[in-house]
Amino acid sequence: MSIKLLLTGGTIDKAYNESNGELHFVDTHIPEILQQGRNRSEIEIEQLMLKDSLEMTEADRHLIAAACSDSKQDKILITHGTDTIVATAKSLAALNIDKTIVLVGAMVPYVFKHSDAVFNIGVALGALQALQPSVYLAMNGKIFHWDNVVKNKQLGEFQEL
Amino acid sequence: MSIKLLLTGGTIDKAYNESNGELHFVDTHIPEILQQGRNRSEIEIEQLMLKDSLEMTEADRHLIAAACSDSKQDKILITHGTDTIVATAKSLAALNIDKTIVLVGAMVPYVFKHSDAVFNIGVALGALQALQPSVYLAMNGKIFHWDNVVKNKQLGEFQEL
Amino acid sequence: MSIKLLLTGGTIDKAYNESNGELHFVDTHIPEILQQGRNRSEIEIEQLMLKDSLEMTEADRHLIAAACSDSKQDKILITHGTDTIVATAKSLAALNIDKTIVLVGAMVPYVFKHSDAVFNIGVALGALQALQPSVYLAMNGKIFHWDNVVKNKQLGEFQEL
Amino acid sequence: MSIKLLLTGGTIDKAYNESNGELHFVDTHIPEILQQGRNRSEIEIEQLMLKDSLEMTEADRHLIAAACSDSKQDKILITHGTDTIVATAKSLAALNIDKTIVLVGAMVPYVFKHSDAVFNIGVALGALQALQPSVYLAMNGKIFHWDNVVKNKQLGEFQEL
What we know:
By secondary structure, chain A is α/β, with parallel strands linked by helices. In chain A, about 25% of the residues lie in helices and about 30% in strands. Chain A has a six-stranded mixed sheet, with helices on both faces. The first copy, chain A, is globular, with a radius of gyration of 15 Å. The interface between A and C is medium-sized, with 18 and 18 residues.
């Protein structure tokens, strides 16, 4: 397998809870996205957690960092909630791992008709295979370097600093 | 605008013709795909033609080549039918243009529920922004160099030679 | 117009709130559903409210009842949240209005890929045009008389008593 | 089972043929539609054929008629191509079977994002359960009696005579 895909949850993987009408985590939809895209890249998926990124702890970030360090693959894709995705990117960059790491999320969960999830995963996967080692973020059809990106919460999109 | 997007048609942009139950070209769906992906990359779209790639002529390929040479942008995305996409990639590579050119298509038109179009456009757009100048093809979640790719018609997917 | 369509909200019309990741009401999706179904039945739409049915008050039910009584049409479709749809059906039946009234909702909002909304609106609209005057509920592909239906919350479906 | 569902094919059940880019029949999507609608009506499905209605022969119509006569259920839903659905409705009406028969189709196959299939099946199923014995056609959100309907090919919709 040439690519490692680490799942941590975030908006992209939220599902509808019929019993209370809220969104929650049940299972990941990423394999479904890859299948819809008829993906043939060799990807080894590892689910670290399924969490809202606002609830992500230091322990969670250590887990993600360890998974990046330990992976046999030097190309790593990470799904992540958008609220703290920049913070996690920074914490990974601080480790100076000699691998290409791309973090990606979605503004609208995959289960909605108007979700940006499939597009975003595509952008991230395409960029991952071509980028030099470092830590990046793929959102809004753009590739951001970890030290030059911020989430504009009012617009609901990511921007360069 | 930092990216040029040349539309030539292909399966990705075919639509349903209600009057005869066949597929035909009406208008492109690529702007809709970019909107669903909440794209904020600067992309200048130019529609060269909307053709089945089996009907593409030498004159059409000259038109595509000229558009690549003439574009102010050095990053060019081209939508193209999958049947002759490799041939067009080769003809563009022969020009030795010092730009990054990524060709992309789909096995199933965008208008179908199970289409690979949104994912493929994402992969191509992500790769385009990170790749060195040359000619590439983005399909099946992979980035192929123009001289190392073939369409396996039986499997309906692209493979390295 | 031969059919009156009263909108009251409910799960069927909930939308995704990107700023907090919760579901809320913005605007109705019912016209979109009718358009997708290429509907040509004459339907006059009146939006009474967009509410979660758990928050529906006696005053709201009086409003619905008044709209039913006042409508020029003798065929009335009502969208409603599923949690108290049976209670509203009963309150309308108590009025003995000589019109055909069909209440309908959804277990999953229209904006989700796996929503039952389009199917349910279809079932309700088809039944409405054929049923004798009284009050009915259309869910799960079935037509229930108002006095013979209950929501099984565990299964998330409606059943005869 | 209280409802018999006879499948004959038609636009509603056409699928995309990746090898030649045309539409063809592979398998029915009707069970998928009923599942999306969370249907709990007892429906016994019988697939008589999967044919474009322009290719339907007298022998095919005899097969449909026999299936209607022989069914234990007195409520029968028939999926059918729209080009000759009116002709089949007339041939069934001539049999004077004492059952409620509703024919239904779609202008756009279920596999397309903008298909009217789910809505139409809903309308037909709702009407079927409420109509008196006779032969009907459900399209465009309307219920037509077999002797008062024509397909307007220019508009792509069904109308009263």
